[in-house]
Specification:
Shape: globular
Number of helices: 17
Oligomer: single chain
Bound molecules: nicotinamide-adenine-dinucleotide, magnesium ion
Largest sheet: 7 strands, parallel
Radius of gyration: 21 Å
Distance between the termini: 58 Å
Helix content: 40-55%
């Protein structure tokens, strides 16, 4: 059956209280008849989750932190909205029959809930790039077997999705992912060594969750997106390029064999790519700012600097190695970013920890979910020891040997 966007489409949001989740809620609240809500899930922001569930009359609200279930119940009392808690309940929420599921949990924690939606053949709007980085082959195989549709929400991949000729992939010469360059684009390595979490999460263009903001600052985000793109589009790794474009107006480009380059442009507002997925295969109006190119006046481009931003090459190496390497890269990065945000390591230590974990752990092939879990867990444990080799919780600087000095 061809999906029709004009019929009401029942939706579930995994991670409704986050940055992408809130943008999705904003769109749903503008057309509630068209998008009835099956389930909303969040990890700890119980007040916002309950408000969202009441506003959109969700059938179910799930909070990941089980200690918050009594509060969730209390906030939903008398509404008729079901309440549940725990990571198992989030997976069960994803398995309930909503036609469209927004996967907007951050990190590998999003894998199993996303997979539950994929396994019942849903339309999955995928913001949670870590799902594809840590288990891309598995997720894409399940999607093909179950007839699930994966619609990329990451703005770059959504842009490529809009201009990629899936009927003639052999006519695509290259895919070019654009990157803003993040808040430290012009800093020297010496300056980057001293940056604080607050500086790292102050992204110059996009307002996003803390983890992806730090990833944008190291350029690991673009590395994760490179891996994500390799699973979403039938283009081999050497033909997926990265271009720094600080204005973030061109969201990505597809270059064809005849020399044509097609791109998607827009103001940097996640409601546009979310709307593309929500109304797919149709379109819907959004309040996202209209692009005024005369006001922007100038678009600039740079080649990424691999000496100051080694994360991009690490991700490319992991993709070339394949198997468990991207899973290991992702898990080590999650541990390192968390340690940085908690003031336990410096900014440059993030990529160093990822590199050391990636070189020390040998990843095999990933046949099933258990193998993914094992690789993810082993990398987390290894990276955690690099964060805190003494185990006494004091601040530890990981050696930055090998990084070229400014
Ligand atoms: P965020 O931190 O703002 O929100 C994360 C959401 O996931 C919250 O609802 C939180 O409650 C939930 N969550 C966190 N840990 C969880 C866990 N262990 N189990 C279950 N739920 C959990 O993150 P975000 O910026 O909205 O990003 C979400 C995902 O979308 C990430 O994978 C990110 O890379 C991707 N993405 C975000 C943007 C953006 O503009 N924010 C753009 C492109 C892609
Ligand atoms: Mg992106």
């Amino acid at each position: 059956m061809t999906p029709s966007a004009d019929m009401p489409r029942r939706v579930t949001i995994l991670g409704s209280t986050g940055s992408v989740g809130r943008s999705t809620i904003d769109l749903l609240s503008r057309e509630p008849e068209r998008f009835p809500v099956e389930a909303l899930t969040a990890q700890s922001n119980v007040a916002l989750l309950a408000d969202q569930a009441m506003m959109l009359r969700s059938r179910l609200a799930v909070i990941g932190d089980e200690s918050l279930l009594p509060e969730l119940r209390q906030r939903l009392a008398g509404s008729g909205i079901e309440a549940a808690a725990g990571s198992r309940a989030i997976i069960e929420a994803a398995a309930r029959p909503a036609e469209w599921v927004m996967a907007a949990i951050v990190g590998a924690a999003g894998l199993e809930p996303t997979l539950a939606a994929v396994r019942r053949g849903a339309i999955v709007a995928l913001a949670n790039k870590e799902t594809l980085v840590c288990a891309g082959a598995l997720v894409m195989r399940e999607a093909a077997q179950q007839g699930a549709t994966i619609l990329p929400v990451d703005s770059e991949h959504n842009a490529i999705f809009q201009v990629f000729d899936f009927n003639a992939p052999e006519t695509v010469d290259r895919v070019i992912l654009t990157a803003s360059g993040g808040p430290f684009r012009t800093l020297s390595l010496g300056e980057m060594r001293e940056v604080t979490p607050a500086q790292a999460i102050a992204h110059p263009v996009w307002s996003m969750g803390a983890k992806i903001s730090v990833d944008s600052a190291t350029l690991m985000n673009k590395g994760l997106e490179l891996i994500e793109a390799s699973f979403l589009f039938p283009v081999p790794e050497p033909r997926i390029e990265v271009l720094i474009h600080p204005q973030s107006v061109i969201h990505s480009l597809v270059s064809y064999v005849d020399g044509s380059v097609l791109a998607q442009l827009g103001s940097p507002d996640m409601r546009t790519p979310i709307a593309v997925a929500l109304a797919w295969p149709s379109r819907m109006a959004t309040p996202a700012g209209r692009l005024d190119l005369a006001a922007v006046a100038k678009l600039t481009f740079e080649v990424p600097d691999s000496a100051r931003f080694p994360a991009l090459n690490l991700a490319r190496q992991a993709l070339q190695t394949g198997g468990a390497a991207p899973t290991i890269l992702n898990a080590a990065n999650e541990v390192a970013v968390d340690a940085f945000l908690n003031g336990r390591i410096g900014f440059l230590d993030i990529t160093r920890i990822v590199e050391q974990t990636l070189t020390r752990l040998v990843g095999g092939t990933l046949g099933d979910l258990d193998a993914v879990r094992e690789a993810d867990q082993a990398a987390r444990e290894y990276a955690a020891r690099l964060v805190d080799p003494t185990g006494d919780g004091r601040v530890v600087r990981v050696q930055t040997r090998g990084l070229s000095r400014p």
